[in-house]
Write the structure tokens for this entry.
Amino acid sequence: MNYFVIWPDGQRFGPVDLATLQQWHTENRVDSNTILEDAKNGNRIRAELVLGSLGSPTTTTPFSQPNQTQNPYIGYPRNVTYGAPVAVSNGKTELTVSYICGALGIVLACCVPLIVPIIGLVLGIIAKNKGQSSAGAAIGLNVVGIVISGVMFLLGIASMFTG
């Protein structure tokens, strides 16, 4: 398993394997409170959880950040995306909003524009594509909302011409 070493100033070194981390611990370059980032999944943990019970380093070298001559990995090419992690939706929010749009389309058919249940229908389809098993009911609710809103819209237009 490989890890990036994260310094308090945000600098990242690595990825390095467990043997290199143990060597850096021995050299006082990594202590138990150093933050490590899993190279595969990006999870951050304290070094003591990875290094286990190695105890105190055996050398008396002062703790210092590695420079380019100390760190052979500094020029190592990485395919790393920096920035905040992107939240991935599982479709629950889309499903909830879809139900709300469908209910509004039915209950307030005379007042709610036709676009509201259409948006609900689209969100219901998105929720279904994301694996929400109850999305079929939301889609059906929005189809009913579209029909009722459409009928009310047509009745409103017809009433303008019939006086």
